[in-house]
Amino acid sequence: MSKTENEVSWLHRYASLVAVMTFLLFMTGMLVSSAGPISLMPHWLELGASGKPDAGPPGKYAHVYQFLAVTVVVLTLILAVWLWRSHSRRYVKTLGSITAGVLLGMALTVLSPVRGLYPAAVSVGYTCGIQVFFCLTVCLALFTRTDWRWDEPKTPDLASPSLRQILVFSTAAVFLQPLLGEAFRQKKMGIAPHLVLGIAVLLCSLWVLEMALTKFAYLRAFKISTIFLAELVGLQFFLGIISYSMNLNARRGPDFQPGLAVMNVTHAAVGALVLATVLFVTCQGFKYFGPADIGASSAMLHEDPAAGPQED
Fold it and tell me: Which of 90, 146, 262, 281 is deepest in the core (most CB within 10 A)?
């Protein structure tokens, strides 16, 4: 790999900044809603059937949230224009345009004059939109790396079910988790779906970790990522148990418990990190592995596992 390819481009740095700012926007939205039911959509943006806010005036973090929202919009539009003016691959440019489109769609949904007629749909749409937008910014931060290539020699994915299928399922499950958790907190659904899906994600992360450590130990970058993913999922599962216990105690007592809001926000923050990590590992899975019948190169099949392939 040439010296130029090893250098970290300013475009990658900027895309990473957009992803970090999106995470901060996500967290600030959670803090804005910490006075009431935790939602990915700040309560002062949620409207009732009358078209007026149900939750009263903005909280103390609302102005920070508004500032971050405007900042993220500006940074994303600049990124989309920068991508099209750069020498990036065409799919990266297209992904940048899609990211800007998702962000503008979220803004139009929240600011639409008919949003008061369908408050639940607006809230769900915002929740899904902010997660999709966060995933897209993470992908842009990854794909703008100068050393990221999809056409590298691939190892046959001989596992059953395949490693890539497990990773895709895990990503989809982590994406759905906040929606199920919010339905439980709003008393529209029991804890069972959220808990079962959380256990499934935990088992999948451990299975992927076991495969990375035993069968693909020579892929050092993939192995490190799976270790970090398993640790984050384990932490998220532990925080989920604590959050559930605190929610049960809060329902039995009339007094407001500030610790519950802190735990819910922490649980959501770690969940966002899990989503970003599992998406990163999934992309690595499709980078390093191919279908079971793919012809792997002799370098991948016969090289010394102790030496391992050239890393990114």
Answer: 281
